[in-house]
Amino acid sequence: GESVGLHLPTLSVQEGDNSIINCAYSNSASDYFIWYKQESGKGPQFIIDIRSNMDKRQGQRVTVLLNKTVKHLSLQIAATQPGDSAVYFCAERRSNTGKLIFGQGTTLQVKP
Amino acid sequence: GAVVSQHPSWVICKSGTSVKIECRSLDFQATTMFWYRQFPKQSLMLMATSNEGSKATYEQGVEKDKFLINHASLTLSTLTVTSAHPEDSSFYICSGRGGSRTSSYNEQFFGPGTRLTVL
C-alpha cells in the first residue's frame, strides 16, 4: 500500500517544551490532510485537519502548517504534556478516490 | 465526533479457522467504510473500501477471497479473515465515513481496533 513519509521515527521532548512533528507527502492531488494520535492498543484519534487551500490552522495547543510547494506538513504541540506521549500519524486524502493514506508515524516521548 | 465500535476487541484463534470482525457506526450512517491493518510499530495500511450495498474495492496485494468484507447496512460492516494463518496476526481497524460518496471532506471516524492473534 501507499504511505506518506515522515522525517523522524522518534521525538523525545521535555515536559513543557514545544514539539514539532514533520511529515512529507508525495501526491500533489491530495487536498485534505489530517493529524492523528494513536495510543498503544487503540484506534487513531483525530487531532486537527487542514485543507489544501490553507497553510495554517490552529487548535487547542496544536497548530498544523502546510507547505504545498515542498509537500510538507507539520504538527506543532505547545507546552507538551506527558499525556501527549503517543504515536502521531499524518494522513492525506486523495481527492480522486477519497482514500485516506497514512504516513509512517512518529513516536513522541515526553520526559517529565 | 461520531462513534465507531468494533467487536471483538481482541481474538485468538487457531490456524486454519475463520474470524469475523464487526464494525458499527453508532450515531451516524456510514456510507463508506474502510478497513485498515496495522502491524506492530508500523503505520495503518488500507486494505479495502466498501460502500453500502456494493462490493468492496481491495487495495493491491490484498486477497479479496481471504479477507471477505460485507457492508450490508449503513451502520454495519464485517471483515472475515478466512483460513487464518499466523502471518494474519495484526491489529485491524475500521473507519466509517458518512455523507456523499463523492465528497472528500466528510470526516472519517475510526474504531478502536481488533487485535487478532492466530496461533
Give an overview of the whole structure.
Chain A is an all-beta fold and 112 residues long. In chain A, 0% of the residues lie in helices and 54% in strands. Chain A has no helices and ten strands. The relative contact order of chain A is 0.35. Chain B is built from no helices and eleven strands. In chain B, strand 4 (32-38) and strand 5 form a beta hairpin. Chain B has strands at residues 4-7, 10-13, 19-25, 32-38, 44-51, 57-58, 67-73, 76-81, 90-97, 108-110, 114-118. The model of chain B is unreliable at 100-104 (pLDDT under 50). In chain B, the strands form two sheets. In chain B, strands 2, 4, 5, 6, 9, 10 and 11 form a seven-stranded mixed beta sheet that branches. A four-stranded antiparallel beta sheet of chain B has the order 1-3-8-7, with no helix packed on it. Classes of the chains: A mainly beta (112), B mainly beta (119). Chain A binds chain B through residues 1, 3, 31-32, 36, 41-46, 49, 51, 89, 93-95, 98-105, and chain B through 1, 4, 6, 32, 34, 36, 42-46, 49, 59-61, 91, 93, 95, 97, 101-105, 107-113, 115.
Descriptive labels:
heterodimer, A: four-stranded antiparallel β-sheet, 54% strand, globular, B: 119 residues, mainly beta, seven-stranded mixed β-sheet, four-stranded antiparallel β-sheet
Short description:
The complex is a heterodimer of chains A (112) and B (119). Chain A is mainly β. Chain A contains no helices and ten strands.
DSSP helical segment count of chain A: 0
Major sheet of chain B: size, sense and barrel closure? 7 strands, mixed
Work out the oligomeric state of the chains in this entry.
Answer: heterodimer
Please state the CA-atom Rg of chain B, rounded to the nearest Å. 14 Å
Strand content of chain B: over 45%
Q: Mean of residue pLDDT of chain A?
A: 90
Figure out the total of helices of chain B. Answer: 0
String of helices and strands of chain B: EEEEEEEEEEE
The parts of chain A where pLDDT drops under 50 for at least 5 residues are none
Coarse shape of chain B: globular
Largest sheet data of chain A: 6 strands, mixed
Rg value of chain A? 13 Å
| Total beta strand runs of chain B | 11
Largest interface: A-B, 25 and 32 residues
* Unreliable spans of chain B: 100-104
Beta percentage of chain A is over 45%
Helix content of chain A: under 10%
Average pLDDT taken over every residue of chain B: 91
